[in-house]
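Incident review: delayed structure delivery

Summary: a single-chain prediction request sat in the queue longer than the usual turnaround. Root cause was a stuck worker, restarted by the on-call engineer. No data loss occurred. The affected request and its eventual output are reproduced below so the record is complete for anyone auditing the incident later.

Affected input:
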Amino acid sequence: MAGHATGKTGMIDQIEETIIALLLGLMTLLTFANVVARFAFNSNILWALELTVFMFAWLVLLGASYAVKKHSHLGVDAIVNILAPRARRVLALITVGACLVFSLLMLKGAYDYWAVFADLPPTSGRWFPTGLDMKARSQSFYEVQDVPMIGILRFLEGLINYGEAYEKLPKVVPYLVMPVSMLLLVLRFGQAAVAVWKGDVDRLVASHEVEDELEEARARATGPVCGGEN
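Output delivered after worker restart:
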């Protein structure tokens, strides 16, 4: 069972890292192409800026969950370092619990914001979902400003826009990253909570010194015993 779960999360890791790498590469290529068009051909790729902004937003939002996985978020561990190991673990559990509550609230807000663009009902309730708001007005006809519609996404016209053609990319596409990234954030904080509970880590933001100490401790615990009895 553990191996099966690891395989699933490992696949998510690979997809996440691949998307982040692709976004970085595409942003670089698109910006370079627009600079060449402007200065070499006195032209302009009209939709380049808006698409770059969308890709940067995807990069930031997906990178937030990726940074949780890599323990790369900024943090101050001066107080944590002076605490006893048991107190560190308790404080880490409180911290990851607060982060999980925050990410769940963000997930609700992100879904509610995106749902109307997907012709889906948002959730009711101010803080926690209490049901579905079936009276919410659909905004599936909203389009972005410059990025043109692409053929591969034409199925959305019949799916959520009642057969009406899109001239520009519908907002439901770039805004999809909002609920997806928040769902990934919940997953990453859940993984962090399990790691803290099992004693694998004692904080969410691990400094390099602490990581080295933990690695050395694991090596001493699992390594062969050298030397004989005195």
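Verification: The helical segments are 2-40, 48-69, 78-82, 85-115, 155-160, 177-198, 208-222.
Action items: add queue-age alerting; document worker restart procedure.
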